[in-house]
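My main concern about presentation is that the manuscript never shows what a single data entry looks like. An entry of this sort, consisting of the sequence and the corresponding backbone structure tokens, reads as follows:
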Amino acid sequence: MTSIGILGAGRVGGNLARELAASGHQVTLGCRHPEEVAAARAAGTGPRIRYADHLTTVRASDVVINATPGDTALERLTGLRSQLAGKILVDVSNATRDTDDGLPGDLCYPGSSLAEQLQTALPGTRVVKTLNTMLFMVMTAPGALPVPPTAYLSDDDEDAKKTVTGLLGDLGWQPGWIEDLGGITTARATEAMILLVPHILRKHGFQPFAITVAR
């Protein structure tokens, strides 16, 4: 069992919290504001899930998942630098500037990535990029797609990637569906894939999909 803190109580964070708690992990779901903590508790996102502010969530966890909006995540997480030191930070967000219809239109860090920016800002934290190339429901139900999806991994620390690979397995990801791309700089490739997503959504609607390697 791993103590996992999830920053972000929206669809992505809530979905991950439910499934990781169901897998037996100790999960704390972090909300930005006290009123959001109260609302999350009242909504009852899932059994065996604690609710707290971001600071408390990070302090209580060995692995922290960033499921907050990518365009503001760097400032938010930099403010938690001392609390994140020595921990694994799993970044599932994409830092984009949205168009008028609310869909991604451009990258916040062209030539880089949110994951790289986080690793530079948080040198005492092991940042792992994954699960950012799919709609949120595929993160926890990869087997529901008719074609095996791909979860990409980017990180410089092999032990951290091993831990995150184990968590992916708990979410239903088979070993052959996980593609280790190498170091954290490879995250700029998977983050750039988000620019394909709005075109797919506009054409096909909000249907589960993942950007997948077919062999």
Remarks:
- The domain at 3-204 is CATH 3.40.50.720 (Rossmann fold).
- The chain has one domain: 3-204.
- The longest helix spans residues 158-170.
- Strands lie at 3-7, 26-31, 49-53, 63-66, 88-91, 96-98, 104-107, 126-129, 151-154, 178-182.
